[in-house]
Design goal:
single chain; 198 residues; alpha/beta; four-stranded parallel sheet; 8 strands; 33% helix; globular
């Protein structure tokens, strides 16, 4: 029997006894984009944390390929889900390449250092997003749109099957919004499942 790739069945979410949202059902196939629309404070980020397994659902279930994700390990989740939080100003002057390499930790064993293959995978993602010119620049010196592309690249370096973006165009000027949205559109065309909020 066929089933959606990612499915939420009657999910309630929140913190402890405080319910933020309830009765949410959603089905998403591979290579599909879903946009969640809502005002600030409506629970979009809390829902994303529930899908990612950072907080448990208060009710209902989240399934991937028909399998309940509730008891998955953090490592297994990191291999499936890529997460792009709302843009961060960045406090440490890591280079763009170093930032993207951080996404490879989902593929490393405990106490392992990144290999040459990890470096090649990170470089491939940087090229894929067209940010090679930024590779040696400090993340803290980039524009808001460039930072968002770097965060997307870091998530893609995990080689996820599902990419979750939390308000990826918030606080960006119009030109940078277009740049980020076009990037997301291309990723969906390549077969990635994308859930984003705005």
């Amino acid at each position: 029997m066929s089933h959606p790739f990612l499915r939420l069945d009657d999910v309630s979410f929140g913190y402890g006894r405080r319910v933020v949202g309830s009765g949410l059902s959603l089905a998403c196939d591979e290579g599909q984009a879903v946009a969640l629309l809502g005002p600030n404070g409506s629970g979009k980020t809390t829902l994303f944390k529930t899908i990612l397994g950072l907080i448990p659902p208060l009710g209902g279930r989240v399934t991937v390929d028909g399998e309940d994700t509730r008891h998955w390990s953090a490592r297994r989740r990191a291999r499936l889900f890529g997460y792009v939080p709302q843009s961060s100003p960045g406090y440490f002057p890591f280079s763009v390449t170093e930032m993207v390499m951080m996404g490879r930790t989902a593929r490393l064993g405990a106490f392992s250092a990144p290999s040459e293959a990890d470096g090649i995978a990170a470089a491939r993602v940087i090229d894929r997003l067209g940010i090679g010119r930024l590779a040696e620049r400090s993340y803290t010196e980039l524009s808001g749109g460039e930072r968002q592309l770097v965060l997307i690249a870091r998530a893609l370096a995990q080689e996820p099957r599902i990419l979750i973006l939390d308000e990826p165009t918030a606080s960006l000027d119009f030109g940078n919004q277009i740049m980020v949205v076009e990037t997301v559109r291309h990723l969906v065309e390549e077969g990635l499942t994308v859930i984003l909020s705005t």
